Amino acid sequence: MEDGINKPYKICDVNREKKKGIVASTLEDLLTKVPEKLGLPAENLTVVLECDGTEVDDEEYFFTLDPDTSLMILHGTEKWAPNMPKCQVSLDQTDEVTLGDKTQVANLVGRLQHNLCHISLLGGQDLELLSDMDPDSLADIVTDRDNRIILEHIKEASGRILLEKRQAQDAMELLKLYHQSVSNGTEDVSPPSQERV
């Protein structure tokens, strides 16, 4: 295969803390320059697209990359993960309880801004905290207008999911009570070993 033309790329480590520019003509050329640029060992390196984790494992694919493509260099068993936005909380609050809740809300919002679908995996306390938050009082967490809209969507969705979870718990409790009353009232309805809820 013919040598490629030198093209610039952006490379970073798995934590996106070390970021460097690099010029390479081939994937092999890039991999020989990475250890010096990022301070990584020369062996067990994997190149992936920084944006979505697609592995760049052959020269043909490498040649199709545009100049200035952002690449992540993984070492050993490191895995690509999406770039999660980190919410910063102003620490000039005097009320520690409010600050604790605000910090927890900031962490939850930071996790959900990348993928709102994860809200359905949260527990009752987290959902309650999010559904009770006041998006207007969180201006130091999210200042961007689009992100404030996201906060409102998170508040609405968490309230809805919390309500659905509570309704499901209530239904389960009713089923348990019904099952207990049937079991206590009639001995031959179903043996205890076959109880299912």
Automatic annotation (TrEMBL):
GO biological process terms on file: apoptotic process; regulation of apoptotic process
Domain CIDE-N: 5-82
Record's keyword annotation contains Cell membrane: no
Pfam family, one: DFF-C
CDD domains to which the protein is assigned, alphabetical: CIDE_N
PROSITE patterns reported for this sequence: CIDE_N
Alphabetic keyword roster: Apoptosis
InterPro entries: CIDE-N_dom, DNA_fragmentation_mid_dom
This protein's name: CIDE-N domain-containing protein
Organism (species): Pieris macdunnoughi
